[in-house]
Amino acid sequence: MKFTFTLFTFFLLFTTNSFSQTLADLKLKPKEIPKGGYMVSDGNICITPQACSFYNDIETYSNIVGTVKSKAIQSFKSKADRGSIMYFEFDHVFKGDRFLQGLLWGKAGEPTPEHPEEYIAKGRFLVIWSLQPDSPLKEKSETKVEAILE
After folding, report:
1. 55 contact partners, CB below 8 Å, separation of at least 6
2. Are strands 39-41 and 118-122 parallel, antiparallel or unpaired?
3. Which strand (E) or helix (H) includes residue 39?
């Protein structure tokens, strides 16, 4: 009986943690923002208009990517870096990989210097980094998001 209770408790803790992520968990907290004179900025500072269009008009794409439950954006700028991180939570598993790749990168099918956005889609969550590949913000955020969603 004790073994069953322990196993049940472990299962309950595991499932509660793995399904309880929120967009707030994924966002960078003030103490997690890298050094380098970063300032938080209102609105969006996407590198390309495609990324901002996707964020601003996500409802337009809902029949392709799924229905968005919530979304959030964080924008930052410094002397050497600027950009936005977009967070999405969908009602169901994100299903728009091919569409998003085409929208962000066009025929290249992968990030380019002109379209450097990268993203991760895991379950119901999607995070898009509209930052340069060598951005300390992108590195910090990507590490955090991957650790939470894996």
Report:
1. 44, 46, 71, 73, 84, 86, 128
2. unpaired
3. strand 39-41
For residue 6, pLDDT beyond 50: no
Q: What is the pTM of this model?
A: 0.85
pLDDT digits (tens, 9 = 90+) for 9-45: 444 444 444 457 899 999 999 999 999 899 999 989 9
Are 16 and 85 spatial neighbours (Cβ–Cβ below 8 Å)?
Answer: no
Mean pLDDT, residues 106-122 taken together: 95
CA nearest to 85, candidates 19, 135, 150, 18: 135
Rounded alpha-carbon distances, angstroms, from residue 50 to 13, 27, 64, 130: 40, 21, 16, 10
What's the residue count for the chain?
A: 150
